[in-house]
Specification:
two-stranded antiparallel ribbon; alpha/beta; 305 residues; seven-stranded mixed sheet; Rossmann fold; 12 helices
Length: 305
């Protein structure tokens, strides 16, 4: 590709070639992919590609773009290639240590913001997130929920390291407590306090669905953040069990769910005597978030084991 020594490539001609090529290869959002890769290679804003459409590209610029483009042809996610992803109007560093933030997860954050606003005056909302990833959820809540007290846990120290970087970049690192912890093991440290809100976007792809995923997910995103390697509901069972011990009386749990999972997760919560259980669709009208209120349960040593 792009080996014609005598051809002069402009931004316009290169974009047209690359977009058509990606479309023929069956890669979705070809135009956006090319915009992101080319603006990254040229170290410019995407809009500048269109205001400089007829600009000839130097050999070094072509070389930089070709290197990125070949990675995309190998199905590496564009967000990993450029090192960032947009979420809630902010940019987050991402790489193979963490799941790439998805637009549908903004529905989870929006619902958490609405619940947080109902906290009494002068009483800051305390929030616990299970599954930190890049930090996109907890950092967004730190930015948009004034005065909130925030904790987040993840089993991966590598993910937590990147999340701390993102928190630093967004100026909220002093407001979030990051802890390495496995939610399936004893959670004694969390039991030292009660929270108003628990949020989570857990791994919800089942073992049977793994091979149906896009190559970008199967080959590059961390498996532990994508699938529970069981039936897709393992984390929800644990969260439904855990939340009454972590939340204050009438505290709220909000979780993101996969396609077709909402009714089952809602039924889990209802069977566990959660109140005001509800399902919220994302912007594609897919049931995406399940939420409910729980009664606080007295802690006992047997539970955390």
């Amino acid at each position: 590709m792009l080996e014609e020594k005598t051809r002069v490539w402009t931004i316009r001609s290169l974009m047209k070639f690359a977009i058509d090529h990606l479309q023929r290869r069956g890669i979705d959002e070809a135009r956006l992919n090319v915009e992101l890769l080319l603006s990254h290679a040229l170290q410019c804003q995407r809009i500048e590609l269109y205001t400089n459409f007829d600009k000839p590209l130097a050999a070094e610029e072509l070389k930089a773009f070709r290197s990125l483009y070949e990675r995309r042809l190998n199905r590496e996610p564009v967000q990993y290639i450029v090192g960032g992803a947009s979420f809630m109007g902010m940019q987050f560093k991402v790489d193979s240590r963490v799941l790439i933030p998805r637009p549908e997860t903004e529905t989870l954050v929006e619902q958490a913001m609405l619940v947080s606003q109902k906290a009494g005056p002068g009483q800051p909302c305390s929030i616990i997130e299970i599954g930190t990833g890049s930090g996109n959820i907890i950092i967004s809540l730190a930015k948009f929920v004034k005065g909130a007290k925030l904790w987040t846990i993840d089993v991966s120290e590598e993910a937590l390291a990147l999340a701390r970087e993102n928190a630093e970049d967004h100026g909220v690192s002093d407001r979030i407590v990051f802890e390495r912890m496995d939610a399936f093991e004893p959670v004694d440290q969390l039991l030292l306090r009660r929270f108003d809100l628990l949020v989570s976007n857990p791994p919800y792809v089942s073992a049977g669905e793994w091979e149906e995923l896009q190559q970008e997910v199967r080959r590059f995103e961390p498996r532990v953040a994508v699938s529970d390697w069981k039936d897709g509901f393992e984390f929800y069972r644990r969260l439904v069990e855990l939340a009454p011990y972590l939340l204050r009386d009438q505290g709220t749990m909000i979780v993101e769910v996969g396609y077709g999972q909402a009714e089952t997760v809602a039924r889990m919560m209802t069977d566990a005597h959660y109140e005001e259980v509800g399902i919220v669709p994302d912007l594609q009208h897919i049931p995406r978030v399940v939420m409910g209120k729980t009664r606080s349960i007295a802690r006992n040593p047997g539970f955390v084991n």
